Amino acid sequence: MFGLFSCDIGIDLGTANTLVHVAGQGIVINEPTVIAVDSKNNRVSAIGFEAKKMLGRTPGESRAVRPMRDGVIAEFELVEVLLQTFIKRVQKYPLFLVKPRVVIGVPSGITEVEKRAVIDAAKMAGAKEVHLLHEPMAAAIGMGIPVEDPIGNMIIDIGGGTSDIAVIALNGTVCNASVRVGGDEMDEAVIRYLKSMYNLCVGESTAELIKIQIGSAFPLEKELTMEVKGHDFIAGVPRTMVISSEEIRDALHEPVTAIIEAVKQALSITPPELSADILDKGIIMTGGGSQLRGLDARIRQETGLAVNIIDEALTCVCKGAARVLEDLDKYRPVLIASSN
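Below the sequence we write its predicted structure tokens.
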């Protein structure tokens, strides 16, 4: 009876985007983790794509906020509203009749308090059961890697707020490193660079666009340029200028170096037998941040290991969470927390 009325839901609750997978339907929601709030009555006015359009553009009585920071909950009540909205959107029947089972991917550096906050938010949003697993493990399962085998696989998951590096074998994380540096920190680095070098102020959305269009971590065969519009904070007027990919590569040096140092840290504590597996199979990169041009080449240069970027880098964590629900008994050893 439960299966007839409810639906199992896998969620990638990311700093930048939230993805929702429903059993039998696939990924049905992939929207920015952004909420617009009316400051007059403290009510939510928009969620997802509509709210992201408002970032940096809202009038005084409204604010567009990211309720997740560094991969964990920054504003509990807003995350609860976001989850409740998305769960209601995909649930076949009202939540007061039957509540869904939910698996959520979380950063490997999450604390016990932060785990409890995620579980509580999902329960308050209407979930019957809530299970958590680390994002690198979820990504590996989503890629179809047999995580129960005694073979080491190194996964680098670069999200909006965190970069998680884990060596996985025998249903567990043998060693890992996690830094709260990801796509958002890269965007902030671009904002700081333009302000310090050119007195040009740009918003989050413009910085993200610059990163996507001309950002890189390794010299390009043909360097790129881009026209950027912003606000001259000295003259106090709008201004347009052209910047190059070399400049943005300089801007991204600090966050990129932090990610690479975390990779080296994880490699340094990897047992010899698993190191041999990684040497044979290489490193697997996933997450939105893995799409930065030349990041694979930079890691390859720094570690001497093969680096592979998977085709479905943005969705494998969500798919892995859903696959866990398909066979919860099999994957129970990989869970790090449950509500029951």
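The first strand starts at residue 9 and ends at 13.
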